[in-house]
DNA sequence: TTAATACCTAAAGCTAACTTTATGTCAAGA
DNA sequence: TCTTGACATAAAGTTAGCTTTAGGTATTAA
């Protein structure tokens, strides 16, 4: 059993954030001692790990809460929960694709400014047409557009 | 030259959002006609493409604005701009790594609920120890932890 | 000439996800 | 006994990034 301070260090989350998650209904099974102090068990830690993962993948608190609610309704919500994870999987895959497109653009810009820095100005590099670009840079340019 | 309505459709951004970007100083070189109507040229469109990319990669408006400011200061800010893109490149690479970790966790959960759905309950799948997991699933589990 | 449409501004409003503040309880050490 | 530190609550405040509202101008179509 862990106190809120210990969990705060464990997950690198401020104590008020943990209390906020609790208030929002993300930690349904969280117990208290006789004087009202929160006691986190391994189950709660697993839940927090999942919350961490879902948040990192961009899911909103209210949707995480909905999922947590389903969990507490037992076996009859298994399909719903599976569907949610399948959707979230697609979601993350799309995010990764989008980031990879952005990365191509940024890498092109890195090259661009590398050249400009060598020249001391942007004159030459600014007027290069896509066809004159080095092969690898051309690829970046195309991926970004 | 394009009107704000045309640009709105082109980028799939609401008109007020474009006006907001302008107000925030993200579209420094934006011209107006005699009656004050915004006229977007190809340069502005390039800027919007970059804004789109930087936003997609999680950069804040105020930082994009700072960068736009550097651009208007000419050659003496070339190194600064290069550094910004190098930092942003790392940033995106980290985001992708984080998303891949989250993806492993989510894929594990997909498998978990697939099994639970077959069984009609979570009993069996819940009590499987990491070592008993199928090889490919074990990998997901480990990547996620 | 009027009505619709597309533009304009300033300012207020909104939402998510915290974060801060003010106030209070409780247990342990000096 | 008193103070310190870790916990608690409710409620107000914060921030980013829009979005909506209210009111006005200018051009075109009937």
Characterise this structure:
Two copies of one chain form a homodimer. With 145 residues, the first copy, chain A, is mainly α. Chain A folds into two domains: 1-72, Multidrug-efflux Transporter Regulator, Chain: A, Domain 2; 77-145. The first copy, chain A, is built from seven helices and two strands; from the N terminus they run ααββααααα. Chain A has helices at residues 4-11, 15-23, 42-56, 61-71, 78-119, 123-126, 135-144; strands spanning 31-32, 38-39. In chain A, strands 1-2 form a two-stranded antiparallel sheet. In chain A, a hairpin with a 5-residue loop joins strand 1 and strand 2. In chain A, helix 5 (78-119) crosses helix 7. The relative contact order of chain A is 0.08. The A-B interface holds A 50, 53-54, 56-57, 75, 78-79, 81-82, 85-86, 88-89, 92-93, 95-96, 98-103, 105-107, 109-110, 113-114, 116-117, 120-122, 144-145 and B 49-50, 53-54, 56-57, 75, 78-79, 81-82, 85-86, 88-89, 92-93, 95-96, 98-103, 105-107, 109-110, 113-114, 116-117, 120-122, 144. The structure holds a DNA duplex (30 and 30 nucleotides).
Order of helices and strands of chain A: HHEEHHHHH
- Radius of gyration over C-alpha positions of chain A, nearest whole angstrom: 24 Å
Fraction of helical residues of chain A: 55-70%
Q: What is the CA–CA distance across the termini of chain A? A: 53 Å
Shape of chain A: elongated
Overall pLDDT metric of chain A? 96
CATH top level of the largest domain in chain A? Answer: Mainly Alpha
* Main pleated sheet of chain A: 2 strands, antiparallel
Number of strands of chain A: 2
- Give me the secondary-structure category of chain A: mainly alpha
Uncertain regions of chain A: pLDDT < 50 for 5+ in a row? none
Strand order of the largest sheet of chain A: 1-2
Number of structural units classed as domains of chain A: 2
DSSP summary: helix tally of chain A: 7
Most extensive interface = A-B, 38 and 38 residues
CATH architecture group name of the largest domain in chain A: Orthogonal Bundle
CATH fold-level name of the largest domain in chain A: Multidrug-efflux Transporter Regulator, Chain: A, Domain 2
Oligomer: homodimer
Approximate strand percentage of chain A: under 5%
């Amino acid at each position: 059993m862990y106190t809120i301070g210990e969990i705060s260090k464990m997950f690198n989350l401020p104590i008020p954030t943990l209390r906020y998650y609790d208030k929002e209904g993300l930690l349904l099974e969280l117990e208290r001692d006789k004087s009202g102090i929160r006691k986190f068990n391994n189950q709660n830690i697993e839940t927090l790990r999942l919350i961490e993962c879902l948040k990192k993948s961009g899911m909103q608190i209210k949707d995480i809460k909905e999922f947590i609610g389903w969990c507490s309704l037992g076996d009859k919500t298994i399909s719903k929960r599976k569907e949610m994870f399948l959707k979230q999987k697609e979601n993350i895959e799309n995010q990764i694709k989008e980031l990879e497109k952005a990365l191509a653009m940024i890498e092109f810009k890195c090259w661009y400014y590398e050249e400009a820095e060598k020249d001391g100005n942007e004159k030459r590099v600014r007027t290069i047409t896509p066809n004159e670009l080095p092969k690898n840079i051309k690829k970046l340019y195309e991926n970004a557009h």
